[in-house]
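One thing: could you explain this record?
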Amino acid sequence: LAMLVECSKKGYLTHVVVGLFHCAWVDWTLPRGETVSLNGTYLNDPRLMPLWDAIKVMQAHGVKVIASVGGGPYVGDYGHLLDPRQPLWYPELRRALQEHGFDGFDLDIEEDKDVVTTENVRTFLEQLRSDFGTGFILTSAPVGEALMYQASSVSPGIDYAELLRDGSFDWYHVQFYNSWGDLA
């Protein structure tokens, strides 16, 4: 964190992505249960205080800080967030984004749930724009093959080209790892 703060003070950074947040965590001590975590750590955990402080310093130096949610098909974040039958998860996510003052949201969708569709993603992004305004940055981290083939093995059912064309996302930062995302 100290390096990021120092780089932001020197003007070397423009954007920082913090992740990965997850929405499939349940805190049994809360009456509602649903909660957002950062890599399995509840957001009110004192161990995260240095991160929240660093974010404020970076933002004071003009760095935009973006929260990334998802990563890995075992989690189920977007199955929860995009499923209209589970309306409790979005308010928890919105509260976390507001509470920690994020400048944007990054979707790292690696799920093949039936509710993870182009239209559900578009609706979700429209809700974020409505709640946070047009200056709120919306990005995604698809694997390379998902940009060329809608039937990608990582996030089938999402037409990323369509979402970029219609202005749903501000930009993509594409992933190529462990043979996922190969374009050949």
Summary: The helical segments are 2-9, 49-60, 77-82, 89-99, 118-132, 144-148, 160-165. The chain is about 35% helix and 20% strand.
